Amino acid sequence: MDCFQGLIQPQARGRTGPRPGRFGFPAYPEEHGHKRRGSYDDGERIKPVKATRLQLSCWVLSALWMALIFFLSHQHSLPTPALFPGQDKLFHGIMFGVLGAFYLGSMGKSSAGYSLPQAAIASLYVLAYGVSDEVHQYFVPGRTAEYMDIAADAAGGLLMATILYLIARRRS
Asked: Mean pLDDT in the chain?
């Protein structure tokens, strides 16, 4: 225990100011010249940003939309009329485009609209859910997993997130 003798400092009674942290290190970074995260110079704490109704609604809608996609993916076959070749890719793009819109809507929008990284993150979320959807379909009898479905999912999410990004930027 003698090796810790110089590190541990007992708190002096009647001492004012910040208490020392563990093992005698400063308790607050201000003592090293750094600002505490989440505070202003005058010591006022930054208030957490509350989610707007749009954000909360989009979170709920994205969860419900993902449940719908999961339900449809779990069906052995979907009765759709054959209108044109490759229509299932269009359906994938639309379904996952709506999901991308919900994801982007669930992110905080600044006065200048959505940022490009937010649109990219929403697109990556759509891609991740599209991959998990195809993995799920692989285990459903009568369904197959296809790389082109993943590409259609990603394209739909990216297209919708980009459109919403441009619309929000134009309006601001």
From this structure: 80
